[in-house]
Amino acid sequence: MLILADDHGVAGHLAASLRDLEKDLVPPEIRQALADRQRARNFFTLRLTAELFRVLDRFASKGIEALVVKGPVLAMQAYGDPAMRAYGDLDLLVRQKDIRRATELMITAGFAPAVPLSAIEAGKIPGQYLFSMPDSKLVVELHNDCTLRYFPRRLPLEECFSRQIRVCFDSHEAAALSVEDELVLICVHGAKHFWERLMWIADVAALASRQTGIDWERVADSAKAVGAERMLHIGLRLASDLLKAQLPEKVQAQVQADAVAARLAEQACEWLPAAGGAPPGVFERAAFRLRMRGGLLSAPAYLLRLSVSPTEEDWKVAPGKNGPGFLDAVRRPFRLARKYRRFDRG
User: What does the DSSP assignment read for 6-67?
Assistant: First the structure.
């Protein structure tokens, strides 16, 4: 049970659920194991939070604007507790024009970049700009409208910055996405990973339930702007069906009316028990993404873009070549096929 909770990222939820049960209903070793996990999570969360504000201060000193997404901000918005949600890194939205300066600042701070400056200068766009602290578990990822390729349409980054809010935690404030934009982002993120972990569904359910002032028309407009209406419906459907999230009547009716979203949610539920341990094969993935995007032209275009847009994993095939290359795009579908075809066979 504990291993499965960890795999799904919901050990904190499990601990909270068992805390109020009578002591004789939960073996003492289970209670102790959960307490130990929660203590370790609290310490790690404090380290991440401290590092987050150091990074934000460095960026602010050089005029680099950043928005915090997911991680501690989502934990506060959805659960009211930064240690309630499991997360292992920090995610920030930073404009592409600021990426080089941000990378230089991170290097100066002792972080090792997964994307070297030479690749940035060559115009290569990774899946994220990842930085890790050597001999530590601290990881920071920078994202923007160029890297968030799983959004069907390009994220209107400037609009997201204009709608930003301030979220308070650990006696500090951080700039973050509006609740409406954050809800769409986590639904796209869950869809990217085929909703294989319960944590992503719990986040949608908790955010939609706890934030009673959500502007649902703004949510719909935000999803429509990036072509993620069905992704939003799947996330809300899973949150409602599995975790009994209470949605406004009008929103619930719209979600229920999306028959394709209902079938995709059922398919996601079939994958859910494995917690990502048995991901869908390449053909299942392609079919899911096509139906998730929808549209005779937009769905194939979305799948094609994902299939041929190289990331840093594809660059490693030809080390030393930093220019944005046609061969990287050609190699990518074959790499993905090799990576996932074993699950088709299994």
Answer: HHHT-HHHHHHHHHTS-GGGS-HHHHHHHHHHHHHHHHHHHHHHHHHHHHHHHHHHTT--EE
